[in-house]
Amino acid sequence: MKILAFNGSPRAKGNTSTLIAAILEGARSQGAKTTEIRLHDINLKGCMGCLSCRKDIGNCKQRDDLSPYLEEIKSAAGIVMGCPIYMYRISGQMKLLVDRMYSLYANLPEGGYKSMVKPGKTYALVVSQGADNPELYQKSIRYLAGMTGSGLGMEEAGRIIHVNSEVNPAAKNQSMMNTAFEIGVKLVKNSKN
Ligand SMILES: Cc1cc2nc3c(=O)[nH]c(=O)nc-3n(C[C@H](O)[C@H](O)[C@H](O)COP(=O)(O)O)c2cc1C
């Protein structure tokens, strides 16, 4: 069983990275193989707008370091989507990935979209923000879940909204770290892939 974590924070030791590491540890405790893709550190290009994925469904024509991982989503048991809030929204690195995930949807003749990934997968969300109100960026968080895990038909194993990051670093919040580990366990246990 494979769990893929897409990390949209540029900070290798930041809050998103710390929480993703705990989730992946939980997943490995259940025998999963885990891979973290640090979007800031790979050669990641944006969607070309070529729309070839409307015909060649499930395949993105753009070629870069993300290409094999986009493909791996189809065979993975679950995914983790993690990123900080930048300027009220998901980070730019994460938005590049979200746009590329358009290739994982097919248009339906009657309108709307159909997921091209097999049912039975799980997903988890990690969002880290400076502001202390966890409701403040719900629109962005709903967007991230809706365009990725839930939009693709995956079952949510859990989400962490980490707030007030300056005075509440994730690494020092043991109960949050424990929750992250448990989410990793559920990612594997609840997956049917
Ligand atoms: C460019 C930039 C923009 C940010 N914008 C916001 C924001 O709009 N709202 C907020 O609450 N925090 C904002 N922050 C703070 C980060 O979301 C916060 O520090 C977060 O914990 C960083 O996550 P990381 O440690 O995983 O990198 C911003 C930080 C940066 C660098």
Q: How would you sum up this structure, described in words?
A:
The protein contains 5 helices and 8 strands; from the N terminus they run βαβαββαβββαβα. The termini are close together. The protein is globular. Helix 1 packs across helix 5 (174-189). With 193 residues, it is an alpha/beta fold. Flavin mononucleotide (FMN) is lined by residues 9, 11, 14-16, 84-88, 128-131, 165.
What sort of overall outline do the alpha carbons produce when their principal axes are compared? globular
Small-molecule binders here are:
flavin mononucleotide
Low-confidence stretches: none
Arithmetic mean of pLDDT? 97
Classify the helix fraction into a percent range: 25-40%
Distance between the termini: 8 Å
CATH homologous superfamily caption: Flavodoxin domain
Task: Specify the biggest β-sheet.
Answer: 6 strands, mixed
Q: What Rg do the Cα atoms give?
A: 16 Å
Top-tier CATH class: Alpha Beta
Order of helices and strands: EHEHEEHEEEHEH
- The oligomerization state is single chain
**How many structural units, i.e. domains?**
1
The CATH architecture classification is 3-Layer(aba) Sandwich
Would you report the number of β strands? 8
Fraction in beta strands: 15-25%
The name CATH uses for the topology is Rossmann fold
- The total count of helices amounts to 5
